[in-house]
Amino acid sequence: MSGRVYLVGAGPGDPGLITHRALELLARADVILHDRLIPSAVLAAARDGALVLDVGKRGGDESTDQTAIGELLVEHARAGACVVRLKGGDPFVFGRGGEEAELLRAAAVPFEVVPGVTAGVAAPAYAGIPVTHRDHASAVALITGHEDPGKPEPVLDWSALAGFPGTLVLYMGVRQLPVIVERLLGAGRPAEEPAAVVERGTLSAQRTVRATLQTLVQRAGEAGIGAPAITVIGPVAALHDRLDWFAERPLLGRSVAVTRARAQASELAERLRELGATVVEAPAIRIVELPTVVPELSSYDLLCLTSPNGVRLLFEKLRASGRDARALAGIRVAVIGPGTARELERRGIIADVVPERFVAEGLVEALAEVNVGRVLLARARDARDVLVDALRERGAQTDVLELYETVAEPLDAVTREAAMAADYVTFTSSSTVSRFIDALDGEQLSVTTRLVSIGPITSETLRARGLEPNVEATRHDIEGLVQALLADVQGQARPVAPGR
Length: 500
What we know:
The protein is built from 18 helices and 20 strands. By secondary structure, the chain is an alpha/beta fold. The chain has four domains: 114 residues, 3-Layer(aba) Sandwich (Cobalt-precorrin-4 Transmethylase, domain 1), CATH 3.40.1010.10; 128 residues, Methyltransferase, Cobalt-precorrin-4 Transmethylase, Domain 2 (2-Layer Sandwich), CATH 3.30.950; 111 residues, 3-Layer(aba) Sandwich (Rossmann fold); 119 residues, Rossmann fold. It has a five-stranded parallel beta sheet, with helices on both faces. It has a five-stranded mixed beta sheet with strand order 6-7-10-8-9, sandwiched between helices. Strand 2, helix 2 and strand 3 form a beta-alpha-beta unit.
């Protein structure tokens, strides 16, 4: 039985610009053949067990040739696999998607095309350059700056392009930029026309060089602009000078390592990317569900939940045993932190007790005036016993339901090196500290790397491992951590209280 191939556009680089349909297909694909520059955050959407192969082209380096890629597509589809051919930008805009579609049709392999945001529009947009504008350009031409070297002669009509009444957008043309500019000038394109080159468009490392057509090569060379880059020629390029919204992001040019478990990292990673940071996803821990059984909840006066993971797994176990939110009817529910409260509210339950301090000690204080006889504490296996001990000292019969444990997540060499060299490394729990430092295997962080802690307990763990936190959140949740990091970048961070 034949499978199916999906020719999918991954967008220009920013993981937030991939389409919902593309993510759906990645989550169910058996085989993914991807281009070189696909972000790791996009590839993370692949399901466990999927075969993920890098078949990207590398200028001057060993690459998978197009014939071999076609053979892989046909081979896996004929074996019955759901195959995603993941291409940067849009598969039908200088992505050779048309050639692959023709090959699949000739091989009688079913295929579908999932368009993506093309870099020729996205990169200029992120640089504040609209490729069309009512006052400046009513047409846009998308041009490859790197024609097929196998063609007997170039097919681009430089005279026509020089006279084109609109914006010229060139892909893959950095190395050919001197030749391109020379030919356009020689064919009569105005030397003083505004022009720009956008390097690594839509990513935190994006850089834009503005010039005239005549000075573009010199300015790009002085700035050391390299591939991947998009070149824009036309009056709209001048709009970059006043519409460059991307450069206003406060974390632009900063790299931040996120050590949370991969499944929980997305909220923090997305928030940091919105602020312009280059995010290094370096999950030091993995959440492993434990084979525990949720007891009859109606016999308890109070249910305490200490993390969003605990909420999620509690309800999954309830559902697996034929129960739902009604099992919590009549029980008072206490949680640590707004994140846990939000996770609970998504399931139709509003927490009765949410302490002002998002640590176990805060919940102990919040429960000081609450009369309880029997308590169920749903938590991680390796959690601190502060809450258990305090409740038992008050005479409450306290049962502990261990729903999950955190285990070490190995870091590959590339990720470890990127995290060690990051401007900031964030820690959201004591377990992320311990597991991350263990993963370094004795290697040292860069002397310029600053350590960001979500709160005093995590800070104490850092100190116990011989590291001093540079930044500590005053509000002990993800948004508090982000605000503390921003304050540090802006030179407004509060000093971290010394350890006990």
